[in-house]
Protein: Lytic murein transglycosylase
Amino acid sequence: MTATHNRLARAATIALIGATLLPAAATAQTAERSNPFAIFDLFTGALPGNRPAGATPQPVNAPAQAPVAAPVRATTEWSGEDGASGHPLMTAAAIRQAAANFDNCVASMWPDAARRGISRESFARFTAGLSPDLRLMDLMDSQPEFTKSIWDYLDILVNDTRLARGREILAQYKPQFDAVERATGVDRYIIASIWGIESNYSTQMGDRYVVNSTATLACVGRRQKYFKDEFLTALEILHHGDLRPEQLRGSWAGAFGPTQFMPTAFKRFAVDADGDGRKDVVDNPYDLIASTANNLKKDGWQSGETWGYEVVVPKGFNYMLADRRHSQSLAQWQQMGLQRPTGQAFPRPSDKAYLLAPAGADGPGFLMLTNFRVIMKYNPAEAYALAIGHFADRLRGGGPFVQDWPRQEKALSRTEKLELQQLLANRGFYRGTPDGQFGSMTREALRNFQASIGAPADGFATGEMLERLRGR
Structure:
């Protein structure tokens, strides 16, 4: 999965806080070689196809609910305004023109669908009744004025109610977690954490029909090539029979299911863990847990290792070293004065890590290991990956972070971030295009400015730093 892919896929989560498909005729032997979960039924000990009568997997949405409604057209209206990105395909006129050609655009994708093995019947069936959901144009280009601080983000996602439900999920599906952990080496608590944070344990999965959303985005707006692949892959999923149309409901960008798979991610990572012939990551807990683990494993998860450690950073530390590009052993960090706040030793001093200081010199530091980078492949936001790792530790029985956050600091609004970038550019520190979105270029520019005025070069944007840039 690409970083852009995941950023779009999990837009709904951020907004709250701010495998090739096997042919149906494949032999069991082929399935066993290509799918580690198909060797035997991991969760019952039965061979695939020999499940006892009535042993149907309990849906993850239990208790039983009314059947999901058939796909419907979105009712939320488009603003009718140009997109904030300024992209020529996001002008109101371009959007209206593309929307008027929507039916022709969808029909033009039939040859590509046929090359993927989708039948004419399936294509006609699953594209019937689609219409452009232009509200997605507003969502694609939305740039919220106000953002949340890292501590507010964590407070919202890692809370007692969600943790209690996570422990229930771990107990309810213990045989499944046991088997998947043995097969993949992926930590059950990380899987349960992703489940909890992505969809609040299947209660907030999104309500847009994925085929309609991806068709809209394949025909209208600035990401058509990317979303054409997602749309055609969604049709593959339905044609293959892994999921039903009513199960393909999700975020505006097309992510679906309790752990929010994009269609192309489903194709790469979904597995039929219980051997029932379907890869159901929506309502089958067997497949859901195993597929999420398979995703992390293929992205490089290191079995038996943690994601990172909270550390105390000594006064006067050179925060120019707090950079993902600067990785060294835990022992080397320790020699530079970084210690765990509990006084515990690092279990594996030779492990390589980089330093993250998400709240600057006045907040806790974190030494991030390989598995943190793997979580960031799932979603490339450091705040998200930190929340996943911390949530997993709390589910495991760990406590809150030891050090305090600088809660007196107010998160800068987008307008203030845009001004900060412009002021950094005026002083020659920032060479990008000011957009109000902070990334590595902005942090590096801010660190260089801070160093120039003798302040801790931690790259943490505060109101005080904005005032200093203003010259006040």
